[in-house]
């Protein structure tokens, strides 16, 4: 019978990273070890569990059924151990040298990260920020693999099992360049639909969005003439052309070159959340970062 005394903590930590990465080279990089060292540790793990654990596959290594059974219990056990060791630690932001890894699309960068940046630099001047563009599926995968500390997204990530906190509710407004000749405070639905619109399609190439769904309920449609993947490009388009767009208010409310108008139809808004993984839920440094970002938005 296998005896836990034969298995040291380093082997369990290596197994945890291997089950996240499915790649010996990437695991070695994360653990700051050589690839041969990881291979030796994997051989010991295979001997202990009497199972190959990870098998060669077309895209890296493929976990066995036994490895899949081990993944979550092992992660929970290591998280509990990390929390136990961290008990009593006090985080001092002014002395900290952490590298924070945040996941955000350009909307989150502009409405959450940017407004917090200067205050964060003053509170924790020795820290660094790395921003990653993310989608809901990538947020979950990167957090499972320990590659993200925080992520900012809508409720699309709700089924992931991550911790989350509501930061704010957002609403849509009709945005155009200042003094647009065809946009007035009492714009009608017909006038709204006749304007030339821009839409943001994160996946690229889409010409419909939540506004079109709302209009379709009344048998209406608008003229969408431009589809772009990012919000920030839309702002440049609006300032230099006669095109208009339905955009989140926080993104444009402080831009003096733009005109914000209430749309003639009700467009549902959305909730913006902050997400994090169980492994960092009780970490003092991470708790400080979460509370800081919550205060600044």
Describe what you observe in this structure:
The chain is an alpha/beta fold and 297 residues long. The protein folds into three domains: 83 residues, Winged helix-like DNA-binding domain superfamily/Winged helix DNA-binding domain (Arc Repressor Mutant, subunit A); 100 residues, Periplasmic binding protein-like II (D-Maltodextrin-Binding Protein, domain 2, 3-Layer(aba) Sandwich), CATH 3.40.190; 97 residues, Periplasmic binding protein-like II (D-Maltodextrin-Binding Protein, domain 2), CATH 3.40.190. The strands form three sheets. Strands 4-3-5-12-6 form a five-stranded mixed β-sheet, with helices on both faces. A five-stranded mixed β-sheet has the order 9-8-10-7-11. The chain starts with 8 loop residues before the first helix and ends with a helix.
List keywords for this structure.
D-Maltodextrin-Binding Protein, domain 2, 297 residues, transcription regulation, LysR-type_TF, DNA-binding, five-stranded mixed beta sheet, single chain, LysR_subst-bd
Outline the fold blueprint.
Elements (H helix, E strand, L loop, with lengths): L8 H13 L2 H8 L3 H15 L4 E4 L2 E4 L1 H22 L12 E5 L2 H18 L4 E5 L3 H9 L5 E4 L9 E8 L1 E6 L11 H6 L1 E5 L9 H7 L6 E6 L2 H10 L3 E5 H4 L5 E4 L8 E7 L7 H13 L1
Parallel strand pairs: 3-4, 3-5, 8-9, 8-10
Antiparallel strand pairs: 1-2, 5-12, 6-12, 7-10, 7-11
Oligomer: single chain
Order of helices and strands: HHHEEHEHEHEEEHEHEHEHEEH
Strand content: 15-25%
CATH homologous superfamily caption of the largest domain: Periplasmic binding protein-like II
Keywords: DNA-binding, Transcription, Transcription regulation
InterPro entries: LysR-type_TF (IPR050389), LysR_HTH_N (IPR000847), LysR_subst-bd (IPR005119), WH-like_DNA-bd_sf (IPR036388), WH_DNA-bd_sf (IPR036390)
Family: Belongs to the LysR transcriptional regulatory family.
Protein name: LysR family transcriptional regulator
